[in-house]
Give the backbone structure.
Amino acid sequence: MYSFLNTEFLPAEKTFVHVSDLAVQRGYGIFDFLKAVNGKIPFIDDYFDRFYRSAEFMQLPVSLTRAQLKEVVYELVQRNGEANAGIKMVLTGGYSPDGYEIATPNLIITQHALPMPSAKMLEQGVKIITHEFRREMPLVKSINYTTGVWLQRKVKEANAYDVLYHLHGEVSEFPRCNLFVVKENGHVVTPAVHVLEGITRKNILSLREGITVVEGKITLDDIWHASEVFLTSTTKRVVPIVQVDDVRIGTGKPGPVVQKILNELIRMENRPE
Amino acid sequence: MYSFLNTEFLPAEKTFVHVSDLAVQRGYGIFDFLKAVNGKIPFIDDYFDRFYRSAEFMQLPVSLTRAQLKEVVYELVQRNGEANAGIKMVLTGGYSPDGYEIATPNLIITQHALPMPSAKMLEQGVKIITHEFRREMPLVKSINYTTGVWLQRKVKEANAYDVLYHLHGEVSEFPRCNLFVVKENGHVVTPAVHVLEGITRKNILSLREGITVVEGKITLDDIWHASEVFLTSTTKRVVPIVQVDDVRIGTGKPGPVVQKILNELIRMENRPE
């Protein structure tokens, strides 16, 4: 397995950064995560848009042009010989002499196995818990997951699959996933603000046929009374949610809307460009 | 110059971590910063208390006992041959196979030059700016300084020395320093909550002779009407503040209280144990 660091492909196990990197010293950096499907990367331009946008906001110049970066990503997938894989691009604050000022960023690209939701999970749905929190820069794909990582223990203790952030009852997102709710009128709604703009979220928002998907405000109360609730992400596509804390959602089983959306997402991923 | 990584002293320039470390992947880790003064480390037990407390809260076991860690820190100072220096201990989330779950932490100890405030700064005082923000886990010395690092550009553009966080007008702390205000009644007050419990802050709170220092609530309005304002940290001790955004503080010059406190801090650092 190979990784890529700044200018060169390296054996993954030999890809190191110096401890003066601002990611190690101050948790400062951004990233994005792409998915190779049959050797192609669907929606790669959307991921690149977000990656360069996050980098610019965080004052981190990217040493490669979009064309160069695309070439590197595809060469990495080819070298590693896995047609289906996750690709993580991390851009750190670089080797900072004083451990605080932004320096020349380090670009780290690594390849990962893609853990998809199991068939059982899609058939039965999952339980989630909630936590009062809002990320400090939700629009930026920063590497700061302090609270999300820290909450993993609580998620496990509750036998839950993930944790949903809310502030004063207004829900936003999961640490790594977006939220969708099917309201009683059949409309599919996802929080409009204080969320990372997921690419899967964007694709679902683009659906038109036989379905109404909109951005809006969602409260915990809306969730408790929804007919369906589900989360979305690049790696997971969709995962139906049938329990939120101690509250059963809808019939307690995944509904027809989440299944329809899953089919649409698979179709979009495999659509010829 | 040497650093220390987990079990061994290494040349500082050869101290690397693998990119799978949770600090690089998710900005997850804690740290502390000590100061060697004439080869001794004043208040080392206070720093160690906080380091082990942060580590425990963040679910990061420290591989060394306090006695072992103390030995390593003193050996590092001795090897590097600088009697006055900063020592940074970072404990990361470790090499995480899935890039999200906490693994076996990496302990990184590095030595740094100590940039003390200049004589001019102490004589004339500095300007600071304000920013609406509160850290997500203020009591923990987490490595997450996303907002603090990001704000450096604004600090420079404003020709300021640092940036003070407030939320709805209630002030808390600087990214790396605590705040003190001398009220019109002569009482010295520092924010009681939503702050990192600095060791210098603790030492100032312990002062008794001829001075009243308390924890309390401080608003931006309190700051504008204070007779003196100053910030504190391990490396800086105290820095007088004479301007907050566009508002002149007190007479516009450092006052007698900050000078008295500086003298006390120097005395405490050099006190035999």
In short: The mean pLDDT of chain B is 97. The two ends of chain B are 28 Å apart (CA to CA). Chain B has nine helices and 15 strands.
